[in-house]
Design goal:
294 residues; alpha/beta; three-stranded mixed sheet; 15 strands
């Protein structure tokens, strides 16, 4: 059951999770939150990663920052270089510095963002490029800032449906999300046949121009149904073999299995009240820390 290529993830226990404000269509302050249930679901997600052989590090939650559990929004790490988040909404503004301090304290090279961006929520590594969402949270200017920092092509994709306010709610990078170079000819180095970069996405979440870009770059992508998208089934985490996802995304699970992946349904329904699933809770740390520490 262990992954072939172990990953390193950063997560934040939802000790203070609640819905005390509304900044996306998923949030409803009138519905009480079961925080102990959210913690139990988060622990199951963390344990699933560890059972697969991945390393999970944690950042201490901060009182008054209920959305800090959505670690993927806290920064983006590519080639060991940390690009900080700069949140659009003031309710989440303090999360960016908290995550940046954690990375600095743990030996990473950090870069304080000048432009509004919400971390891996809108910046997804796909082979040697970065797919970058905009339209709701992340400013287009952040795409240029990230490209300059990492020396990689950053591909802008406009989101148009407010239910899918971050790119990671509408698209999952199934293979190629560790950020290595794409081999010549597109063949995966460890496999015969499958592409080096593989994605699944919900087309209607994107503008016509973004849909065209996705069709051109990923002609063999797995297209998700609306039924899978509206339960945030695409807010999933893939290690190239296993895909951790919302178990309610049943069609997606079947399609992934047919494609050769092993879907693993993990219930994060209580955390969905804030607008995030498995991916939102999971920040991948790619590359080396300063001094070469893994």
């Amino acid at each position: 059951m262990h992954a072939d290529h172990p990953r390193r993830y950063l997560m934040c226990r939802p000790t203070y999770f609640t819905v005390s404000y509304e900044i996306n269509p998923w949030m409803d302050r009138s519905r009480p939150v079961d925080t102990p249930l959210a913690v139990a679901q988060w622990e199951r997600l963390r344990d699933t990663y560890r059972d697969l052989g991945h390393t999970v590090e944690t950042i201490d939650p901060v009182p008054g920052l209920p959305d800090m559990v959505y670690a993927a929004n806290g920064a983006t790490v590519v080639d060991g270089l940390v690009y900080s988040a700069r949140f659009l909404h003031p309710e989440r503004a303090a999360e960016g510095p908290a995550y940046l301090k954690w990375f600095a304290d743990h030996g990473f090279v950090t870069h304080l963002a000048e432009q509004v961006n919400e971390g891996e929520g809108d910046l997804l590594v796909a082979g040697d490029v970065v797919l970058a969402g905009t339209g709701f949270r992340t400013d287009r200017a952040a795409h240029a800032e990230a490209a300059a920092l990492w020396g990689r092509e950053v591909v802008t994709l406009e989101l148009v449906d407010p239910r899918f306010y971050h790119l990671d709610t509408a698209l999952t990078v199934l293979r190629g999300n560790q950020g290595g170079p794409v081999p010549d000819g597109g063949a995966h180095p460890a496999l015969v046949g499958p592409p080096a970069v593989d994605v699944t996405y919900y087309p209607d979440a994107f503008s016509p121009a973004a849909q065209e870009i996705l069709r051109e770059r990923f002609p063999d992508a797995l297209l998700a149904t609306e039924e899978d998208a509206v339960v945030l089934g695409l807010n999933a985490v893939s290690d190239g073999t296993h895909v951790v996802h919302n178990p309610r995304a049943e069609h997606l699970a079947g399609a992934l299995r047919e494609r050769g992946y092993e879907p693993l349904g993990v219930d994060t329904s209580e955390l969905l009240r804030g607008g995030g699933g498995a991916k939102c809770c999971t920040l991948e740390m790619r590359g080396l820390r300063a001094g070469g520490a893994a």
